[in-house]
Amino acid sequence: MANEKKNVLDWLFDICLAIVNVLMSLLIVIIILDVIMTYFFNAPLKWALEVSEYALAFIAFLGSGWLMREEGHLRFEMVIEKLPQKVRSVFEIFGSLVCLLVSLVIVWSGIEVVMSLYEKGALFESVLQWPRWPLIAAIPVGFSLLAIQLLRRSIQHIKNFKALKS
Fold it and tell me: Which residues form the Tripartite ATP-independent periplasmic transporters DctQ component domain (predicted)?
């Protein structure tokens, strides 16, 4: 990625990575602060666990598209590398398309759930009493980004497969 010209989608994934990095940094600060407050002052931060959980959700979902772009998700490379190039390309195409389909189903369902929670004004029964929909919105947003990258990946693998036939 470093030598390639970046398009709008790549910039979007990089922005998501920056948000993930900020959230990770805040998460570290919150946890350290909570440990200090708990063990030295016997006054734990009641909101720390809740905010940490929300941050972890956004970290996981916002980072998934970037991680897919970087081919950082777990794979069975030991097996895949032993396959002939054409068979490997077919597996890559198949895997990307299946994951794309699953991602789109999750996006669709996630949007329905988020809209329902927003309309109901549902709140978490917790210390902060936050609305539920922003946290759940991380799911369709993250899977939308993942779906975009899976579509790009599928197209690239199809091009690679066609090049092998020539």
Answer: 27-159
